[in-house]
TrEMBL record:
Listed InterPro entries: ATPase_NBD, GppA/Ppx_hydrolase, Ppx_GppA_N
Domain Ppx/GppA phosphatase N-terminal: 29-282
Organism: Negadavirga shengliensis
Classification via SUPFAM superfamilies: Actin-like ATPase domain (SSF53067)
Protein name per UniProt: Ppx/GppA phosphatase family protein
Amino acid sequence: MKLAAVDIGSNAIRLQITNVIQYEGKYNFKKLEYLRFPLRLGKDVFNHKQISELNKRKFTELMRAFKILIDLYEVDDCMVCATSAMRESSNGKEIAEWVKNEIGLKIHIIDGNREAELINKALYSYIDNRTYLHIDVGGGSTELNIYKRSQKTASRSFKIGSVRSIDEKITASLWRKMKSFIIDNLSQEHHVICIGTGGNINKVFELSNPRKNKRFLELTKIKEIQEYLESFSYDERIHRLNLNEDRADVIIPATKIYTAAMEAANSKKMIVPDVGLKDGVMNFLFERNLNREKIK
């Protein structure tokens, strides 16, 4: 079974193609292809409310290239999801319709709740009976999910993202609302563990020089990495730290969002499982096709 997931984010667009193989009663997921293209749709949308003609052309050509790869790999099922940039764009639905009619890819423009639901499908193996705050920071929004005794008890999406932060598009009132949501739901809890997802926290984790098989960061270490990043200019982060251009300017504001959420939860530890929306979509597709096989 070959599956494809496309994540159209505010800062970049990702394609993953996976082969699911059944062997001795177990299913193994083998990644066949992964592409990340740095197309920052959020820059257009958060400043001008729509995707520019230049980025519209780039986007449609990228969707055409993804469709070719999906067809070449003879994928059995695929899902294309677009998040905050396209859902807030005045021409997002029009572009999605064009891609569907002309290229043959159906783009699902999903809201924050649906985005969180899909990401959560990739997180269940990390959640037990303890209390968790899941923080997913994207370019345009931050999704927060609270788990207690293995059950999700609260969820909220906030228009607080790394790309928005660059142009100071986030109000103090919105910051307060996000922190209040966390405090209201977790003030009675002790030893809250955070789970961080998103490209920026993965890069922070990588910069921390983690020990083998260690998938967590202390809050103090995240702040240490933040200060380290702030000691370099944008150009230095690219050339001395080897960050991509579209990562070098958003990683610091993204890190500030993670630390603000952790502090509001009075949490000292964050698990960094290196999963995201594409992984949740892949799990959704697997479950859907497994159910179809059972019906047959």
